[in-house]
C-alpha cells in the first residue's frame, strides 16, 4: 500500500460519516442539518386491496436533534420525498411525491434509539391520473445519531378524489445520512 493510499484511507475512516454515536460532551447540544439525502422502502395498501411496494428517495430539507429542557420536540424534520411503487399482476406503476414533517413526542429523549414521533404530509400520486392526498403517520426513530437517522412509520393516506378506492394504510422505512 502506498503512502498516499494510507493517507486517503486515514482521512476517509476518520470522517464524520463513520462516527455513528455523538461524543458525550455534546450530547445535549442542538444539532441541525440541511439537505440530508436518504433512501425509502415503502408499502401501500389502498382500499381496492392491491398491495403496492417499492422505494424512493427522500431529502430532509431541515432536521434537528436537541435533547434538552427547552420547549418543543427534541427531534424532527421537514422533508420532500419521491417514491415509485409497483404491484404484482399490475403493469402500471404508482408514483408518489410528498412533502411533510415529523416531530418527536419527547422533548428530551436522552437516548439515540426508539424515539417515538408523529408525522404528516401532503402530496400527489400518479397511476392512471394525478390526485392529491394528505397523510398522517406514527413512527419511531430506530436510531437518531449525529450522522445517521433510521426510522420506521405507518399511517393512513387519504386521497382527495376516488377516496374509497385510493385511500389506505401505508408503511415506510427510512435511512438518512447526514454527511455534514
User: Proportion of β residues?
Assistant: over 45%
What's the number of structural domains? 1
Rg, rounded, reads: 19 Å
The level-1 CATH class: Mainly Beta
Contiguous uncertain segments of 5+ residues? 15-25
Shape: elongated
CATH architecture: Beta Barrel
From the 3D structure, determine the CATH topology. Porin
The tally of helices reads 2
Give helix % range: under 10%
General description of the model:
The protein is mostly beta strands. 8% of the residues lie in helices and 57% in strands. It has helices at 3-13, 163-166, and strands at 31-46, 52-65, 75-86, 93-104, 115-126, 130-144, 148-159, 168-177. An eight-stranded antiparallel β-barrel has the order 1-2-3-4-5-6-7-8. The relative contact order is 0.19.
Descriptive terms for the model:
180 residues; Porin; 8 strands
Quick overview:
The chain has 2 helices and 8 strands, in the order αβββββββαβ. It is mostly beta strands.
Please render the helix and strand layout as text.
Layout: H1 3-13, E1 31-46, E2 52-65, E3 75-86, E4 93-104, E5 115-126, E6 130-144, E7 148-159, H2 163-166, E8 168-177
Antiparallel strand pairs: 1-2, 1-8, 2-3, 3-4, 4-5, 5-6, 6-7, 7-8
Amino acid at each position: 500500500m502506498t503512502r498516499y493510499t494510507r493517507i486517503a484511507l486515514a482521512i476517509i475512516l476518520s470522517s464524520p460519516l463513520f462516527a455513528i454515536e455523538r461524543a458525550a460532551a455534546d450530547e445535549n447540544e442542538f444539532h441541525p442539518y440541511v439537505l440530508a439525502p436518504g433512501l425509502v422502502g415503502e408499502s401501500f395498501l389502498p382500499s381496492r386491496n392491491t398491495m403496492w411496494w417499492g422505494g424512493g428517495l427522500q431529502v430532509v430539507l431541515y432536521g434537528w436533534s436537541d435533547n434538552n429542557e427547552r420547549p418543543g420536540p427534541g427531534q424532527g424534520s421537514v422533508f420532500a420525498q419521491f417514491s415509485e411503487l409497483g404491484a404484482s399482476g399490475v403493469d402500471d406503476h404508482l408514483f408518489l411525491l410528498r412533502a411533510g414533517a415529523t416531530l418527536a413526542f419527547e422533548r428530551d429523549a436522552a437516548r439515540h434509539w426508539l424515539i417515538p414521533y408523529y408525522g404528516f404530509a401532503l402530496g400527489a400520486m400518479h397511476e392512471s391520473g394525478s390526485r392529491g392526498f394528505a397523510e398522517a403517520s406514527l413512527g419511531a426513530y430506530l436510531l437518531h445519531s449525529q450522522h445517521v437517522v433510521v426510522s420506521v412509520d405507518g399511517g393512513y393516506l387519504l386521497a382527495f378524489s376516488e377516496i374509497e378506492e385510493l385511500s389506505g394504510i401505508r408503511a415506510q422505512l427510512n435511512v438518512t445520512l447526514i454527511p455534514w
